[in-house]
Amino acid sequence: MAPSTRTQASLLLNPFLLLICSSVSSAIGQEARPWPLLRWKSTLSPANGGDQPSSLLLSWLPAKPTCSWSGIRCDATGHVTEISLPGAGLHGMLGALNFAAFPALTKLNLTGNNTTGAIPANVTSLMYLDLSGNSLSGEIPNTLPAMVRGMRYLNLSSNRLRGPMPRWLSDMREMRSFNVSNNKLTGEIHPALFTNWPEIASFHAQTNSLAGGIPPEISNATKLQSLLLYNNRLYGQIPVEQQSHWENAARNHKFD
Ligand SMILES: *[C@@H]1O[C@H](CO)[C@@H](O)[C@H](O)[C@H]1NC(C)=O
Ligand SMILES: *[C@@H]1O[C@H](CO)[C@@H](O)[C@H](O)[C@H]1NC(C)=O
Ligand SMILES: *[C@@H]1O[C@H](CO)[C@@H](O)[C@H](O)[C@H]1NC(C)=O
Ligand SMILES: *[C@@H]1O[C@H](CO)[C@@H](O)[C@H](O)[C@H]1NC(C)=O
Ligand SMILES: *[C@@H]1O[C@H](CO)[C@@H](O)[C@H](O)[C@H]1NC(C)=O
Ligand SMILES: *[C@@H]1O[C@H](CO)[C@@H](O)[C@H](O)[C@H]1NC(C)=O
Ligand SMILES: CC(=O)N[C@H]1CO[C@H](CO)[C@@H](O)[C@@H]1O
Predict the structure, then answer these.
(1) CA neighbours within 13 Å on the CB side: how many for 146?
(2) How far is the CA of 195 from the centre of ligand 6 (A)?
(3) Can you list the domains of the chain with their CATH numbers?
C-alpha cells in the first residue's frame, strides 16, 4: 500500500515527469503501429517447413521501425501508405490483417501469393489494390465501394471469386483499370460500370461465367482502350464508332 501511495504522490508532485510521459506517448502515436502487421505475420503459415512465413518478412521485427520493414512504405508523418509483397510466398488468411489499423494505406500489392479467405471490406483509403494470383474466395463484398471511393487500379484476377460483379462497384468513380479475369463470377455486366466510370481505360473480365448482353452504355466509356470479355456467355455488339477509339479492341475482343 505504502509504495503505490508514494508513487502517486511523486507523480502528482512532479509535473516535469508528467510532461515527459505525455510527450513520449504522443511520439508513439505518430509512428506506424507494428502490432497489426506482426499479428498478421504470426497467422501466416511457415514456408517450406521452416519457422518463417517468408524470408521477406525477416525484417518485420518489433525492434526495428515499422517503416523500415521490407514491403512497407510510410508517409512523412510515419503512417503506413503501402504494403507491397508481390510473390513473397505468403500462405494464410488475408482477413487476419486488420486493415482498420491503416487509415492512410493507399496501395496494397499481394499479387502472386497464396492468401485465402474473403476480400476484406474494411480497407478505406486504397487507390491501388492488386490481389491477383492468390486463392481468395467468396464474393466481391458489397460494402467495398462505399469504403474505397478513390480506388483507381483494382486487380482481383486469377482467384476463386464467385457471385456477381456488384453494381455498387460503379461508385468507385475514379476507376481506371479493372481486372477480375479468371475467376468464377456470374450474372450480368451492369450498365453503370460503363456510365459511372468516366476514366475507365482498361476493363478485363474474361474467363468467368458472366452472361447476358453487352450493355449499349459501353459507348459512354469514351476512354476505354482495352476490353477483354472472352470466355464468358455474353452476347451483343460493340458500337463500331467506338471501336475506332480502341487501338486494341478488334484484336482483343472476342466472344465464345
Ligand atoms: C494455396 O493454399 C491452399 C489452401 O491452403 C492449398 O490448397 C493450395 O495447394 C495452395 N496453393 C499453392 C500454389 O501453394
Ligand atoms: C475488418 O474486416 C475483417 C474481415 O474482412 C474482420 O475480421 C475484422 O474484424 C474487421 N476489422 C474491423 C476493425 O472492423
Ligand atoms: C504489383 O507488383 C507486381 C510485381 O512487382 C507488378 O507487376 C504490379 O504492377 C503491381 N501492381 C500494382 C497495382 O502496382
Ligand atoms: C493488376 O492490374 C493493375 C491494374 O488494375 C495493374 O496495374 C497491375 O500491373 C496488374 N497486376 C499484374 C500482376 O498484372
Ligand atoms: C490482369 O491480371 C492478369 C494477371 O492475373 C495480368 O496478366 C493482366 O495483365 C492484367 N491486366 C491488366 C490490365 O493489368
Ligand atoms: C451515354 O451517352 C449518351 C450518348 O452519348 C448520352 O446521351 C447519355 O446521356 C449518356 N448516359 C450516361 C448515363 O452518361
Ligand atoms: C513466390 C511464391 O511462392 N509464389 C506463389 C504465390 O502463390 C501463387 C498462387 O497460390 C503461386 O502460384 C506462386 O508460385
Answers:
(1) 6
(2) 7
(3) 118-252 (3.80.10.10)
In sequence order, what are the beta bridge partners of 235? 213
**Pairing mode of beta strands 202-204, 107-109:** unpaired
The residue type found at 232 is: N
> Using an 8 Å Cβ cutoff, are 243 and 222 in contact?
no
Tens digits of residue pLDDT in 79-132: 999 999 999 999 999 999 998 899 899 999 999 999 999 988 777 788 999 999
Neighbouring residues of 25: CB distance < 8 A, sequence distance ≥ 6: none
Give the three cell numbers for residue 201: 481505360
Give the cell for residue 172.
468507385
- What digits encode the pLDDT tens for the residues 117-141? 998 877 778 899 999 999 999 999 8
| C-alpha of residue 232 to centroid of ligand 1, in Å | 26
Q: Which three cell numbers stand for residue 228?
A: 477483354
pTM: 0.83
**pLDDT tens across 48-75, in order?**
777 788 888 999 999 999 999 999 999 9
> How far is 166 from 243, CA to CA, in rounded Å?
26
Measure 36 CA to ligand 4 centroid, in angstroms: 26
Q: Is the CB of 204 under 6 A from ligand 4?
A: no
Tell me the per-residue pLDDT of 129-184, one tens digit each, with 9 for 90 and over: 999 999 999 999 887 766 678 899 999 999 999 999 998 899 999 999 999 999 99
Residue 133 Cβ < 6 Å to ligand 5 = yes
Q: Which atom of ligand 2 is nearest to the CA of 120?
A: 5
Q: Which residues pair with 128 in a beta bridge?
A: 107, 153
| Residue 75 falls in which region: left (phi positive, over 0), alpha (psi -120 to 50) or beta | beta
Atom of ligand 3 nearest to the CA of 109: 1
